[in-house]
Every structure is written in structure tokens, then in C-alpha cells.
Design goal:
The complex is a heterodimer of chains A (773) and B (389).
Chain A (H helix, E strand, L loop, with lengths): L6 H10 L1 H4 L2 E7 L6 E2 L7 H9 L5 E2 H11 L4 E4 L6 H15 L4 E5 L3 H17 L6 E3 L6 H10 L2 E4 L1 H8 L7 H5 L1 E6 L7 H21 L4 E6 L5 H9 L4 E3 L9 E6 L3 E3 L4 E2 L2 H14 L4 E4 L3 H17 L7 E4 L5 H12 L5 E4 L14 E5 L5 H8 L9 E6 L4 H8 L2 H4 L13 H14 L2 E2 L9 H13 L3 E4 L2 E4 L19 E5 L9 E6 L1 H7 L5 E4 L2 E9 L4 E7 L3 E19 L4 E18 L5 E6 L5 E11 L2 H6 L3 H23 L7 E6 L7 E6 L7 H7 L1 H13 L21 H12 L16
Parallel strand pairs in A: 4-9, 4-10, 5-7, 5-8, 6-7, 8-9, 11-18, 14-16, 14-17, 15-16, 17-18, 22-26
Antiparallel strand pairs in A: 1-11, 2-3, 12-13, 19-21, 20-21, 22-23, 24-25, 25-26, 27-28, 28-29, 28-30, 30-32, 31-32
Chain B lengths: L3 H9 L17 H8 L6 E5 L2 E11 L9 H4 L13 E8 L10 E10 L2 E8 L6 H14 L2 E4 L6 H11 L15 E3 H9 L8 H7 L17 H11 L5 H27 L7 H13 L3 H13 L9 H14 L3 H13 L6 H19 L5 H11 L3
Parallel strand pairs in B: 3-6, 6-7
Antiparallel strand pairs in B: 1-2, 2-5, 3-4, 4-5
Helix pairs in contact in B: 7-9, 10-11, 11-12, 12-13, 13-14
């Protein structure tokens, strides 16, 4: 490595370089933050204090103290603090302190995945050992051997598990968990933001069942939750836990100064809006960082890209006479020994760069990394912060670069970095009363304990609970006797419920030529609705960076047979969707929201070449139509606007479609979901003007539609900004969509229509990209 | 009363297959159903603190009870110390499903016990889910009357279900341990020990046929276990009572068979009768060996070897190998050596490794014996070598 270079110098060199001018859309420095301390409370057991002191901790951060105080008062809390702010102590200390005083007490820790559960187990176990406390801690999941399970049930004081295990392995067997449920004093729910959408809606119901059983067994635990920074942590906690919650969101942890840079590959075809490869740009930037002696971690979005980038970087290092082994790849599922080797290498400088997928979990200590390069938006703003937090952990300044891909959402973000510097607009949304999800869990709850007539399930009213139980009774799985509803079926309901899906009719994707002497291999599962737009015969199915072509679809048995291919095009299904409004539940100045029936029929598909987006073929699709009940919001275009629109009705509908495309992007960002989670349709019903629909692309809905309805005006404004600021000449996938005819005023008309919808009388034209900050 | 939710449920029909109607008409009202139930059996209602338990009670003249062997020793289960047939409660349930979760309800608790000279059968039937508490309450009283439980696979099923239901109905106090910890003779485990590999399986009905020699006519119209839950659900929804007869009969047959099986197994464990098949003796011997009951093991295995080869034959080689282990533990070196020599006789010439191993073992035994005056066995060994096939 050459002489040590500061980040400021490096950035200076980038900004001075004329070729970088177009690439760096924004660069900003976030100042360092000094810590805010508070004393260790006197109520803390001296053994814990000693353990802290031995770690060099003689005072706490303010938020840690606040968390312990709130817990001591028996308040349910939700903590919102950045990465590396000592979050674990916020719950480990109050829980251990309490269990040391009440040895009969129990605590349940919930993590979304097994890997995270393992990491937290290590963390709390270490603290217990250092405090020389005799608190028995266990993980309880699918890997726990049968003979160990009995021990956990009997003597486990702290039990760490995941939602799936709680749902299918603990709650239905609650009569075997008497010690835990009778004495449960704490429930810790970490990574709260992970419980959004379908998963969150399921978890809310699992928590309802847990609370119901706690009440039966006589306990009333305090909940402590922790979330990444999102816009609505308190609301999410309320919806998931259905208890009063105190919010603690001022972090007292110190933060080193951080430089944030947003980079966008340069445009290579202005008319089509095509940019250069983001991986090439990443390669160039990382090589520069390494050459200047700055240890770097790189996050990419697929395993294939890990391999590709490692290869590129090693070639580049070799060209500069540097050791290629300085770069290492990292993927999920590595054994602990391999992880330790990488950690050691980072510590002693033999490894200067790790290229990783998002799978880099908390369990690996990456030591002294200075820079973090994120190649491709990872899906949420909070993930960007989590990944960025991996650099500069031990004081000293750090640098984070987000490199945008050419997808609509990436482009929107690198051109609107203010989302990273102001409040995070992302919201986690759930709907615990999604009828499909609710019924699944009501069955499980009835299996666990009969329902008394007149009782409520969670926050639902007694009337709604009664309606739901009656529905179960009509389907013969519960029987009402005297004043109770009893489970009356031979099945074990928890086995038929997956917490990550709504309906179980998934298609399996089977690779017919997986190699290695296997006949066939299931490589993925696709939900029923998406299967129609991604698994028709001849479709190109993408998984993990690899391409597969669908050779045969066995629709009735829900199987798709695919084969690896190397194709230069992707396929795009054309579907006609019809939305039938079933109920109009609310109206405001701009939109309506209510229950709808969406009918979608795939009519054909296009073959679209990569990069150039030319059509290179077309095919037919013969699949039945799909119907889905869900929630939607719709924006009608009032007749005066329809009649007075420059260009006529056809151009208006076209403009409306363009708006829809941009809205789709903006909405996905706000709702913290992918474009596939929100459906988009424009139609022209006979009895009214054209309408634009945005619907939850999940049967029963998960709460997007209602929220989008409340945000219609700001969303339209956001869409307008996106369209106006796009660097293309007349429309591209990043703004109003690629399938428009390439007439030059597509974007203009879309902006004009938005202005008219929002009630502005004049459209101010500003179709130049915003200058970098 | 309809709510927005009930409208949505009706439209979306989340429980049904796409677009189908609800599967069942409204259930028949409880009073009608219960009055029909009265005609099924002359029920006897026992008063309990939680209501009246619905019982079908039958009294039968009992056979002479065999003396009980020391089950605590033979089965290595301390809790069965002092077991005798007349101090046990025989138990078999019929439930709404197979899972061990809280939602599986035992709607029929079949019990039997000895009272004076009679065998009393008490079937506790849950005619309506609201009757479950009373049935369980009566069951608890029975549990407290008899120090021992006898079941067929009850360890993993019946007791698990009953334990859950007792807790759900708050019939077990905080300090009481699980009913699974009570002294319990699980006939499935014992039957497996004796009859493994003898018949096509060790299910109760198989044993009934081959070991108890029951009249097959009794099971001619037997309701298969897999249909039992469906029949009960059907009764609850429609009030149709006659098919319940099948459940009660099936359960009765099972409980009575269990009592008969116990009567058969106790003498078998104590001292197998002369006509006991060799394979059964071998099984029992092997079980004794696994439990470190070496005297018992050698007695049984030697008997096994000596039975005439009728039906299933005993693997002589395997028997000898077992004897070697047992005799060594008993420090009966001479007998161990004799067993080793027999084992060698039953080992084929091609299995060189095994022959060599046994020869070495025999030599080691000899050395141990030579420290005591038994040099004649050396000559015997040499003789047997020259005359081996």
C-alpha cells in the first residue's frame, strides 16, 4: 500500500477529477457526535457492575440508562438507535438484573433468524459468565436436539428463539412450557423493523397468541423492542405488540465523522437513459481506495456479484503489483473457522478488502475498516445505514459510497440523497387483521386454548372476534359448546401456516439439470400470484444472478421445470389487470381507498435485450386468470381535467400510466418494500374518468393502500420531482417507464397532469437534472 | 351481527378453497343431540366438583390374577416396585387427533380396574365439549385410587394428551408433577421386548390375534383408529349417534385386550412357560443382557438355544456371542469358553477374521482357567478343532 491517505484527500482527488464530475452526485460530511453519558444505576446488581467495569465500562450512554430505567419501571419500550451503540446492553442489563433478583423468573428473546439468535446467545452468555451469575440460557430452535428440549423447558431461564419456532414449536405445546409461561417477566423483540409486510402481520398474531397464553398461565411480561431507524418505530411497536410503549430514540453513543458519497455510473445512451455498468464503477472506486491504503468493505446484492467483483479487484491489484489475496469474498453460511480466519486477516492487515452479500451478519467483527462501498441499493434506507456502520467502528473517520444501479429506485435515491440526511421516510407497515393471516392464527389460537364467547383476540373487538370464530365454525374446525368455541379438527394448524407467506399454494421451481449426478433440484418457491408473471413457459427466471429458462409448467401440480441458460435478454410479461372496487372505505381530496378484486391475466411476454432494452421477440402465454382480494387506493382524474387536457384523452391515459410508474417507485421507497409488493393499474371505467390504482400485491393487504391514500399529495409531488429530474430525454424505466412511445414530451405531459391533479394551475417547466450538492 | 370484518370474511372466504361454499351446514342444536345420545347407552352419571361425568360402566367376572414378578428389577424401573394387576388402572383414550399439542382432546377415556373379584370397565365419554371437565375430574379421582397405570403406548401418547387437557382445565396444581412421571407399565415397550421380530409387528391387534388367541370375529366390524375422530366430529355436527357405537366397542376391545395382555406378559416375564418359542426367549434374554441382568440373561438364552426349532429359529451364533458376554460378567469363565467354542462352530469357514477373533478369545479364557486346575478343557478344545467341519 502507498502512504496513508486521508478520506478528505481521497475525496478531494475524486472531485478534482473531471471524469468523476458526472459520477459523484453528492458528497457530504456528517459531523462527529460526542457521547452523552449517564451513571450506572445504583439498582444494578454489583456483579453486573463488576462485569461492566472489567470491560472498561464505568458509565453508560444516556440511552442505555434510559432503557434500564424504563424497564425498571415496568414500561414496555422500543429503542431506536444506530448500529454499534451498545444496544444489547439495553436489554441484557435490565433482564439479567431482574432475573438475578427473581431466580424463578423467565425471559424470552426473539430474533428473526437462527443466525442472529446464535449471536445474541453468545453476547448474553458472555455477560452472564463475566458477572458470575448462575442464569441458565438456551437457544431453542429446529436444531435443538430432542433430549435438550426437555431441559430447556424445565430449567431455561433465558430462552432465545425465532418466530417460526415460537409459532409451531412452543405455543401449540404450551402445556409443556409451564415454567416459562407462568413466570415470564420479559419478552425481547430485536430487529423490529424486520417484521414488516406479511412477516410482520404474522408476527403480530403470534404475539397475540403468546399474550393470550401468558394471561391464561398468569404472567404479564414487559416487552422491550429494538428497531433500526425508520419513520414509524412507535407505531410499528404498537401494532406488533398491542401494548402501551415508551419510545427511546435519542442515542447517547458517540459517532465518528462520516463522509457519505453517492455515485452514479455515467450515461452512455441519453435517448434511452442507459448508464454504464455499476459493477465497473464499483471496481474502479474500490481499487482506488485500496491503492490509497484504505481498508474497505463492499456490499453487493448477489453471490454471483461477489465472485465477479473479487475477480476484477484481484486483477486490478495484480496490475498494480499489489497482493491479490488482500481481497476476500464473504458469503452467508461460512463455517465459524473460515469467519475467524477472515477476521484475523482483517485485524493483522493481511486482508484489506472484504466483498460481501447482505448476509454479513453481526457475528463477524470487521475491525479497522475505513471505507464501505455499497454496490446497489440494498432495499431499505435503514439497511444502508447498517451496512455503512460496518466501517469506522473504532473512532476515526469513515467513508461510505452508495453506487446506484440503473433500476428506478436506485436512480431515485442517488439523485435524492436528502433521504439519507433528513428524516428517514421509510415506514414499516403491517395489517394484523388481514383476513387470511388472521384466520390462520385464530385456528392456531383455538387449538391452543378454547375461546370464551364474548372474548377478544388481541386488539380486535369482541364483535369482530365473534365474526371470525363464526367463520371458523362454518368451516367445521371449531365447535361451539355452551359458552366456548373448541378446536374440533384432527389437523395441527401451525404446520399449515408459514409466517412468510399468505397462502400456501406456492409453485416450486425445479432445475432439471443441476449437475453433480442429481436428477433435479428445487431451487426456489414462488407465490401463486407471482408465478403467473414469472414462470410461464419460455420465461427467463432470475435467481441469485443466474438465469433459468422455464421449459415446462405443470400448473395443476404447481411445478415449474427450468434449465440454466446464458441469455442476453430478459422476459417481461404483459398482463391485463382489471380492478373491481368492492367497497369504498375512505375518500379525500385526491384519492379513495377500499377493498378491491384484482383480476390479472397474462396475455403474452416480450423478450427485452439487456442494456439497450430493444424488443427481440414476443411469445404467447396461456394461463388462467388470477383473482385476488386486496386493498387498493385509487386516484381518479376528474372530468374537467379529462376534458381540458392538452393532447386529448389518449395522451392523458398515457401520461397517467407514466405517473403510475413514477409513483410506484416513490411508494415502494416509502413503504419499504419492493415494486413487486405493490400492484399498479390504470383503467378507464365506463361510468367515470380514467383511474390509477395502487394496490397491495398480497391477498388481503398489509396496510400499504390506506397509508398511500393518506399520502397521495406528497407522493404525487415526489413523483413529479422524480420525473422532472430524470436525466433521460423523453422517458425511461427510471421515470415514466420504458414502454412509452418515445415522443419527446412524455415527461412534460406527466408533470402537467400531476400539477392539474394537485390543483396547480400552471406547470413550471424544469426538466434539467438537479445539480450535485 | 355483521361487522366490516364479517363482510370481508364472507367475500374473501379465507378458509375455503377458491370460491367454494362453506363446507358444513349449521350444527344441530345441542339439546337435540344430547337427547339422542341418551339412547346410545345406559349412561351412569358420576358427580364431580366440575359437573356430572358421563360414564358407561360394565362389570365382568375376573379371571384369577397371576402373581407379579419383580418388575422393578426385570424392567429396571424402580417406580414399578410392588406392582400387581389389581392395583393398576388400565387406560386407553380416543382423541380428536394424533398431535401432542394442546388442541388434541380426549373425548373418550377408556379405563378398567379390578374391584373385589370383578373387572370393572368405565368408559368416560365427552358427549359435549362442556362435559370434558367432569370427565377429567373423574379421571383424576381414578388416578388417585390406583398407584399404577397400564397403557399401550401411553407414555408417548395417551398420557401426553391427558396431561395437556388436565392443565387446560386447571385440574393439576402447580406443585404436582406430570402424570407421566407416575408408575407406569407401557405394554407396547414390554411387548416389543418379548415379541420383536416374531410376528409381522407388535401392534395391539396383532398381539391379540397371535398371543392372546382372541376370537377374530370380535374385530370383524371394528372401526379403524383412523376413522375415529371423523365419527366423533360427525356426531357433534349432525347429532347422528349410532356410529359412536363403533368407537365405544373399539375402545372396549382395546382396554380388555390390554388387561389380557398384562395377564399374559407377567408370567412370561417371571418365568416363561415351557412352550415359549425360542425367539421370544432370545428376545427376553437379550433384553436382560441390555439391562445388565446377567443371570437372567444366561438362563433365558440357554433355554432359547435348547428349544426345538419350530417356527422361527434362534440364531445360534448370536445367542452364543451374547452368552459369552453374560458369562464373562458373571465371572463364569468355563461357561464363557464353552460358549465361545460353540460360537466358533457356528461361524462359517470363510469368515476368517471372526474365527481368528474367537480362537484368540478361547485361548485367553484358557489362560485364565489354567490359573485354576482346569487343564482338561485344553484337550477338549484341541479335540473339537480336529472334528470341526
Amino acid at each position: 500500500m502507498s502512504t496513508h491517505c486521508t478520506i478528505a484527500n481521497l475525496l478531494g482527488s475524486w472531485l478534482d477529477d473531471p471524469t468523476m464530475a458526472e459520477i459523484v452526485t453528492s458528497a457530504r460530511r456528517l459531523d462527529a457526535e460526542a457521547p452523552e453519558h449517564a451513571s450506572i444505576p445504583a439498582s444494578l446488581d454489583p456483579r453486573l457492575v463488576k462485569a461492566l467495569n472489567n470491560r472498561g465500562i464505568h458509565q453508560l450512554y444516556s440511552h442505555q440508562r434510559a432503557a434500564i430505567d424504563a424497564a425498571g419501571r415496568g414500561e414496555n419500550t422500543v429503542l431506536v438507535t444506530p448500529t454499534a451503540s451498545g444496544k444489547s446492553l439495553c436489554f441484557n442489563l435490565p433482564v439479567l438484573n431482574d432475573l438475578m433478583a427473581h431466580p424463578d423468573g423467565r425471559a424470552l428473546f426473539l430474533y428473526p433468524t437462527k443466525a442472529l439468535t446464535q449471536d445474541q446467545y453468545t453476547s448474553i452468555h458472555q455477560l452472564i459468565e463475566e458477572a458470575e451469575a448462575a442464569i441458565r440460557t438456551f437457544t431453542f430452535d429446529g436444531d435443538t436436539p430432542a433430549d435438550a428440549r426437555q431441559a430447556v423447558r424445565e430449567v431455561g431461564q433465558v430462552v432465545l428463539t425465532n418466530p417460526d419456532m415460537l409459532h409451531a414449536g412452543i405455543l401449540p405445546h404450551h402445556t409443556k412450557w409451564l415454567k416459562l409461561l407462568r413466570n415470564l417477566r420479559w419478552v425481547i423483540v430485536d430487529e423490529l423493523h424486520a417484521y414488516k409486510g406479511v412477516f410482520g402481520s404474522h408476527l403480530a398474531n403470534v404475539i397475540r397468541r403468546l399474550k393470550r397464553l401468558c394471561a391464561f398461565h398468569g404472567s404479564s411480561p414487559t416487552f422491550i423492542a429494538a428497531s433500526a431507524t425508520i419513520a414509524n418505530p412507535l407505531e410499528l411497536a404498537h401494532r406488533l405488540l398491542e401494548v402501551p410503549v415508551t419510545l427511546i430514540d435519542q442515542s447517547g453513543a458517540p459517532r465518528a465523522a462520516r463522509h457519505m458519497v453517492f455515485a452514479n455510473p455515467p450515461i452512455v445512451n441519453r435517448q434511452l437513459g442507459i448508464r454504464g455498468s455499476y459493477l465497473h464503477l464499483t471496481r474502479r472506486l474500490v481499487t482506488d481506495l485500496l491503492a490509497k491504503g484504505l481498508p474497505t468493505i463492499v456490499f453487493v446484492t448477489s453471490r454471483l456479484n461477489v465472485e465477479i467483483l473479487v475477480k476484477y479487484l484481484r486483477e486490478d491489484l495484480a496490475k498494480r503489483n499489489l497482493d491479490p489475496a488482500l481481497v476476500q469474498g464473504y458469503r452467508g453460511g461460512y463455517l465459524p473457522t473460515r469467519r475467524r480466519r477472515i477476521e484475523a486477516g482483517l485485524r493483522d492487515g493481511n486482508i484489506q478488502c472484504v466483498v460481501s452479500t447482505n448476509a454479513l451478519e453481526l457475528g463477524i467483527d470487521v475491525g479497522e475498516l475505513t471505507a464501505c462501498v455499497i454496490a446497489g441499493y440494498p432495499g431499505s434506507i435503514s439497511s444502508v445505514w447498517q451496512q455503512s456502520g460496518r466501517a469506522g467502528r473504532r473512532s476515526g473517520e469513515s467513508l461510505t459510497v452508495l453506487v446506484g444501479r440503473s433500476t428506478a429506485l436506485d436512480q431515485y435515491l442517488v439523485q435524492h440523497p436528502e433521504y439519507f440526511f433528513g428524516r428517514n421516510p421509510e415506514e414499516a407497515r403491517i395489517d394484523a387483521n388481514n383476513p387470511y393471516i388472521l384466520m390462520d392464527h385464530l385456528k392456531c389460537a383455538a387449538f391452543e386454548l378454547p375461546f370464551e364467547v364474548g372474548s377478544s383476540f388481541g386488539d380486535m373487538s369482541p364483535e369482530d372476534t365473534e365474526a371470525a370464530l363464526t367463520h371458523l365454525e362454518q368451516h367445521g374446525v371449531v365447535h361451539r359448546a355452551a359458552d366456548r368455541y373448541h378446536w374440533m379438527d384432527r389437523s395441527y394448524p401451525a404446520n399449515h401456516v408459514s409466517l412468510r407467506r399468505v397462502e400456501a399454494e406456492n409453485f416450486t421451481v425445479i432445475d432439471v439439470e443441476p449437475g453433480r449426478d442429481r436428477d433435479a433440484l428445487v431451487i426456489a418457491e414462488v407465490d401463486f400470484v407471482s408465478a403467473h408473471t414469472s414462470l410461464y413457459e419460455h420465461a427467463i427466471y432470475n435467481l441469485d444472478g443466474f438465469q433459468y429458462q422455464v421449459e415446462r409448467l405443470d400448473y395443476d401440480n404447481r411445478k415449474a421445470f427450468v434449465r440454466r441458460v446464458d441469455s442476453d435478454y430478459f422476459t417481461y410479461a404483459h398482463s391485463k389487470s382489471k380492478v373491481q372496487v368492492l367497497s369504498n372505505d375512505a375518500t379525500n381530496e385526491f384519492s379513495h381507498v377500499g377493498e378491491v378484486l384484482v383480476t390479472e391475466k397474462v396475455v403474452g411476454f416480450k423478450k427485452v435485450k439487456f442494456h439497450t432494452h430493444e424488443n427481440v421477440g414476443y411469445g404467447e402465454v396461456h394461463l388462467p386468470e388470477v383473482q385476488m382480494h386486496t386493498e387498493a387506493m385509487w386516484i381518479p382524474v376528474p372530468p374537467p381535467i379529462v376534458n381540458g387536457f392538452a393532447g386529448g384523452r389518449d395522451r392523458l391515459v398515457d401520461a397517467l400510466r407514466g405517473i403510475g410508474h413514477a409513483l410506484h417507485t416513490v411508494a415502494s421507497l416509502r413503504m419499504m418494500c419492493t415494486r413487486r409488493d405493490i400492484g399498479l393499474t390504470v383503467d378507464e371505467p365506463e361510468d367515470s374518468g380514467p383511474r390509477l390504482y395502487l394496490y397491495d400485491n398480497i391477498p388481503g393487504g398489509v396496510g400499504f393502500a390506506m397509508r398511500l391514500h393518506n399520502l397521495t399529495a406528497p407522493l404525487l409531488a415526489g413523483a413529479r420531482e422524480l420525473i422532472a429530474g430524470c436525466a433521460c430525454s423523453s422517458g425511461c424505466p427510471s421515470c415514466i417507464g420504458a414502454s412509452r412511445e418515445m415522443d419527446s414530451d412524455g415527461r412534460l405531459l406527466a408533470c402537467q397532469l400531476i400539477d392539474e391533479l394537485l390543483g396547480k394551475t400552471k406547470t413550471t417547466l424544469r426538466l434539467v437534472p438537479s445539480p450535485p450538492v | 351481527m355483521t361487522t366490516r370484518l364479517s363482510d370481508r370474511l364472507r367475500r374473501m372466504n379465507p378458509m375455503g378453497q377458491r370460491g367454494s361454499e362453506s363446507l358444513f351446514p349449521s350444527p344441530v342444536d345441542a339439546d337435540t343431540r344430547m337427547s339422542k345420545l341418551e339412547k346410545l347407552r345406559p349412561w351412569y352419571f358420576e358427580e364431580t366438583p366440575l359437573g356430572k361425568a358421563r360414564i358407561f360402566r360394565e362389570q365382568m367376572t375376573a379371571f384369577a390374577l397371576p402373581p407379579a414378578p419383580d418388575l422393578a428389577l426385570i424392567l429396571r424401573d424402580e417406580r414399578l416396585s410392588g406392582f400387581s394387576m389389581d392395583q393398576a388402572l388400565y387406560l386407553d383414550i380416543e382423541a380428536t387427533g394424533l398431535s401432542h399439542g394442546a388442541g388434541t382432546m380426549a373425548f373418550l377415556i377408556g379405563t378398567a380396574y379390578f374391584e373385589d373379584q370383578d373387572l370393572v370397565l368405565e368408559q368416560l365419554f365427552v358427549g359435549d365439549p362442556s362435559e370434558e371437565m367432569a370427565a377429567l375430574s373423574h379421571f383424576r379421582a381414578l388416578l388417585d385410587r390406583f398407584p399404577y397405570l397400564v397403557s399401550f403406548n401411553g407414555k408417548s401418547y395417551d398420557l401426553s394428551v391427558l396431561q395437556s387437557r388436565l392443565i387446560l382445565n386447571r385440574l393439576l396444581t402447580d406443585t404436582e408433577g406430570s402424570i407421566k412421571l407416575r408408575p407406569h407399565l407401557d405394554l407396547l415397550h414390554t411387548a416389543r421386548q418379548a415379541y420383536r421380530g416374531v410376528f409381522e409387528n407388535t401392534r395391539l391387534q396383532t398381539l391379540e390375534q397371535h398371543v392372546l388367541h382372541s376370537d377374530p370375529a370380535l374385530r370383524e366390524n371394528d372401526l379403524p383408529g383412523s376413522l375415529v375422530p371423523a365419527v366423533y366430529f360427525h356426531y357433534l355436527r349432525t347429532g347422528v349417534v349410532p356410529p359412536l357405537e363403533g368407537i365405544l366397542t373399539h375402545n372396549r376391545l382395546d382396554v380388555v385386550s390390554m388387561v389380557e395382555l398384562t395377564r399374559h406378559l407377567l408370567p412370561l416375564l417371571a418365568d416363561p412357560p415351557p412352550d415359549t418359542p425360542g425367539l421370544v426367549l432370545m428376545n427376553l434374554g437379550r433384553a436382560a443382557l441390555n439391562r445388565k441382568l446377567y443371570e437372567r440373561a444366561t438362563t433365558l438364552i440357554e433355554r432359547a438355544r435348547a428349544t426345538p426349532t419350530a417356527g422361527t429359529s434362534v440364531d445360534q451364533r448370536e445367542a452364543c456371542l451374547a452368552l459369552i458376554t453374560a458369562y464373562r460378567r458373571l465371572d463364569q469363565i468355563q461357561a464363557a469358553q464353552a460358549a465361545a467354542m460353540d460360537a466358533l462352530q457356528h461361524t462359517v469357514a470363510e469368515d476368517r477374521t471372526e474365527r481368528v477373533r474367537l480362537e484368540r478369545q478361547i485361548t485367553r479364557f484358557q489362560r485364565a482357567l489354567d490359573r485354576t486346575p482346569h487343564a482338561q478343557s485344553k484337550d477338549r478344545f484341541l479335540d473339537s478343532l480336529s472334528s470341526s467341519p
